Amino acid sequence: MAVSQSQQGNWERRWHPLLSQWVIIAATTGNRPWNGAVVGAAESINKTPQHDPSCYLCPSNTRSNGTVNPDYLGPFAFDNDYASFSPEAPTFEDEDSSPLMRRDSNLGRCRVLCWTEDHSKTLASISQENMRAVAKLWQDEYNTLCKETDIKQVLIFENKGQEIGVSNPHPHGQIYATGFVGDTFSRLRQSQKDWVKEHDSSLLLDLIARPEYQDTLKIAENEHCIAIIPYFARFAYECWIIPKHAAQHIGQLSDAALNDLADLYQQMAKTYNVLFQRESPNISLLYNAPCDDHPENENWQFHIIMQPPLREPDKLKYLAGYESGSANIVNPVQPEIAAASLRKAFAAQEALA
C-alpha cells in the first residue's frame, strides 16, 4: 500500500496544546524533488534467527560485561549494564559555583526490557498473549520504580529499527527513571494543569471527545482506548493511544483496560508495517505522570505516542536546520490525510489477522 504524497499544502500553523508550540503543516514539501538519502526495506524477518549466539539480549547468552542472561521466555527486564543514570551518581549540592557553571547529580535507574526470547520477532509479530505480557511488564516496572524515593519521572520507550540507531536488533525497549522531571514532562504537566484550571476537565479527554477525533482524526478504537492522529501532529504518521477514562499513569489501568491498550498498540505496530510495506522503524513513548508528589500530577492523562520516522517507505523525516534552530516542526503530511491512510492500513492488517 503506497503512501500518497499528492496532498495539497495548506501552509498553516496548528497549536500543540500540550507542548505550547506551533506545528507547521506544509504538505507541499512532501512533493519536492528528492535526490537525497533513501532507506531500503529492513532485512526480511524470516532471515533473522530465533536465537542469535552473538546477541547480548538473547536467552542464556553472555552479555558484554560478563553477566549471563537466564533462559527466559516472554518479557525479561534487567538493569542496563551501561546506564545513562545511576543510583550511585555523585551529588554536588554543597558546591559553591557560578550560575554559569551549574551542575547536578544524574541520579536514576536505567532498565532494559526484552519483549520476548525470540530474536526474530517484533511487537508487531509476537502473539497477543506475549504482547499483553509486555504491557503488564510496563505496568509492573512503573509501579516498582515510581515507589523509589529518589525517582521523579519514569519514561518507558522503544527505539525500533536501524534507522533510529538501535544498537541491538533484539526486540526490546528501555526505561529511564530519573531523579528529575524532564522539560517535556514539565510542559505537559503545566498545560494539563492550566486546562483543568480553566475548563475543570481533562485536556486529553476533552480532545478525544471532539467530533474531529471521532471522525477524520480517529484511526481505531476498542472499549477502553482510542488511537488518533492529533490535529497538531509533529510527525507525518504520528499516532496517540489514549485511554478513554481518566488515568494518570499505566498503574491505574484495570486488567481489561491494560489488555485493550496492548491490543491496540500491537494493531498499530502492524498497521505501520502495512502502510509502509516493510518492518517499520518507530519510536514509542509512554507518557506516565511524573512521580514526584507534585499536586498537579492529578491532572495528567496517561497516553502513548508512536512516532515512525518515515514519511514514505524509503524516506526519513529529518529535523534539519529550521526545525533544529526554531523547535517548530514542519509536518509534510496533513494529519487528516495521514489518518485516512492509517485507517485504510488498519483495516488491511485486520483482514490479515
Describe the fold and architecture.
With 353 residues, the chain is an alpha+beta fold. The protein has a single domain, classed as HIT-like (HIT family, subunit A, 2-Layer Sandwich). 25% of the residues lie in helices and 19% in strands. The chain has helices spanning 128-145, 183-199, 203-209, 255-276, 321-326, 335-352; strands spanning 12-16, 21-25, 76-79, 108-114, 153-160, 172-178, 218-221, 225-228, 239-243, 282-287, 303-307, 310-312, 315-316, 330-331. The strands form three sheets. Strands 3-4-6-5-10-11-9-8-7 form a nine-stranded antiparallel beta sheet, sandwiched between helices. A three-stranded mixed beta sheet has the order 1-2-14, with no helix packed on it. The protein is globular. The model is unreliable at 1-8 and 32-36 (pLDDT under 50).
Please give the structural blueprint:
Layout: E1 12-16, E2 21-25, E3 76-79, E4 108-114, H1 128-145, E5 153-160, E6 172-178, H2 183-199, H3 203-209, E7 218-221, E8 225-228, E9 239-243, H4 255-276, E10 282-287, E11 303-307, E12 310-312, E13 315-316, H5 321-326, E14 330-331, H6 335-352
Count of individual domains: 1
CATH topological fold name: HIT family, subunit A
Uncertain parts: 1-8, 32-36
CATH superfamily heading: HIT-like
Strand-and-helix sequence, N→C?
Answer: EEEEHEEHHEEEHEEEEHEH
**Average of pLDDT:** 90
Describe the main β-sheet briefly: 9 strands, antiparallel
CATH class: Alpha Beta
